[in-house]
Amino acid sequence: MKTAETINIVCAELGTTKADLAKRMGMLPSSLYRKLARESMSFEEFQKCLDALGVTIEFTLHYPDGKVQSSQANHEMLLEKLDLLEKELEAARKAAEFHKKSLRDIRTELNSAVGYAELGRRHGSKAEEYLGKIQPVLATMETTISCALGEPPGDAPAADGTENLDALRGKRVLLVDDNALNREILKAVLVDHGLVVEEGSNGSEAVAAVKANEPGYYHFILMDIEMPVMDGFEATVMIRNLPNRIRANVPILALTANAVAENRERAAVIGMDDFLVKPCNSARLLRSLAKLQ
């Protein structure tokens, strides 16, 4: 059947004229008449005609294995397959996120284990022995976890953790934590590597110290999150909103024993530059500072 005959039949069945069809298509009736008379209508134009009339043509599909199926049945089958694939993809996404969270949890536990060992070695030789055993394990696992998470190779820490650390010497750090023992341990690590450390016990003191000193006085701020008077999040927001941009843009690293995803996300949103879990692995801490120079 020719195109003109098909259009004539459809128009007759629907009780419409070709002039009305042309208007629905946005073209002059004379143009449509000529195309139908000369059989010069393209497939796209023919489909546009049918769409304007609200007509769906069903046809038969012949498969190489001899199977025959109507276009409508095939369409429904494809929709079912698409729905199934979407469900499988969503399940795969959820599984991937679960595995990524598990890997990040392992990384956190390993870093915490090193942090505890460093805390303990100041009070006993057994902790020193334990630290010597766990550090190579941490270096290997960090590389493995970074690869599994698809992180760039540059994100994986070097085995000895000494990259760019010499450049930290003489840099001034404002260490803010309400726990005096935490400050003592972190200060010892920082001073051992040549950094100058000043202390604060809450967020309000941190904001006051940044305001009181000249812009650029502090090279880094280590900010505990959960503190009395003013927490680390509020203090960070106040510092980031200071009118002097040098003061406002000082690198701030979050310190917390609560490594839940909500805290990580909030720290990133308000402008904290890194997120460290306490007790902090000293190698991880120094690498983070080195990256922010």
Please give a structural write-up.
This protein has a five-stranded parallel beta sheet with strand order 4-3-5-6-7, sandwiched between helices. Helix 11 links the parallel strand 6 and strand 7. With 293 residues, it is an alpha/beta fold. The chain has three domains: 3-57, lambda repressor-like DNA-binding domains (434 Repressor (Amino-terminal Domain)); 73-154; 163-291, Rossmann fold. The protein has helices at residues 3-14, 18-25, 29-38, 43-53, 71-120, 125-148, 180-192, 203-212, 232-240, 245-248, 261-270, 282-291, and strands at 60-62, 68-70, 172-176, 196-200, 220-224, 252-256, 274-277. The protein is elongated. It is built from twelve helices and seven strands. The model is unreliable at 153-162 (pLDDT under 50).
Concise structural overview:
With 293 residues, the chain is α/β, with parallel strands linked by helices.
What is the element layout, followed by pairings?
Blueprint lengths: L2 H12 L3 H8 L3 H10 L4 H11 L6 E3 L5 E3 H50 L4 H24 L23 E5 L3 H13 L3 E5 L2 H10 L7 E5 L7 H9 L4 H4 L3 E5 L4 H10 L3 E4 L4 H10 L2
Helix pairs in contact: 1-4, 2-3, 2-4, 5-6, 8-9
